[in-house]
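Researcher: Here's the sequence for the chain we discussed earlier.
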Amino acid sequence: MADPKKPNLKISVDDLFTGGGQLPKENPHGQIVQLDISELHDFPNHPFKVRDDDAMRQMVDSIKDKGILNPILVRPRQDGSYEVIAGHRRKFASELAGVDKLPSIIKEYDDDEATILMVDSNIQREKILPSERAWSYKMKLDAMNRKLGRPSENVRQVVSHLQGKRSTAIIGEQTGESHKQVERFICLTNFIPELLDMVDEKRIAFNPAVELSYLKEPEQRELLSLIETEEATPSLSQAQRLKQFSQSNKLDSGAMLAIMTEEKPNQKEVFKFKPTELAPYIHKSVKPDEYREYIIKACDYYKKHLERSSRNKEAR
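Model: Thanks. This is the structure I predict for it:
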């Protein structure tokens, strides 16, 4: 006799690609069961951050007052526990509210089906960070391409009416983006975490970020160091030049510093020096990306020297 907690109910791949695979409000097939929170595990590499913010606090208060109104969607794991596909925020809020069990719909999905459903159930959130959108698009794209790469009867039906369409175009149609914009977001997954965080924090604008994502990892590390020392991020024009230099294998530390220290059109500087003017006063051991710190320390030393001289004169 089949286990009623684990019905073998797979959605069609056609539904997955056309957006019909999202969990309906009323699901006549899956049974709702109460599962212990200790049995529930987060989806691997879940790209959507669960934040303990005001919205989460409101959800916690709602759960304390009314309980969980909508069940979460899970799939069984081999060890007998369950993996959350949709409902990570409800699970976290329930933990904060001290709830032990969650109403859950259990269904069997393979990894790619589960990934596509996980993305679709979260991508319509009101506030999504660029990093969340980037990684969710990438995860869904990879899952879709794997599905199309190993045809089954369902997939053959899908291919017949998706021929000529990019996978990114399908994602774009479902999210209101152009296929090009989907591809641009996916580019951000090439960033090192520290630079991607700067995109989320709006320290680096989206368009320059797309250009910078083409830099090799060591170049990104050096750029991160320059951003911190110069306390400035690249403009779109600077990002495009950095990308061009990188692709022609000419982006060494000197070229990066020269590009990063260019005066921006909307930037008014009180002081401006040419590197050749400063070179005679900077020790040869100092690297280009250390010039700023070196000059500030030199100025600080000279300032203290003048203050001591002034005090000595007053004491005479």
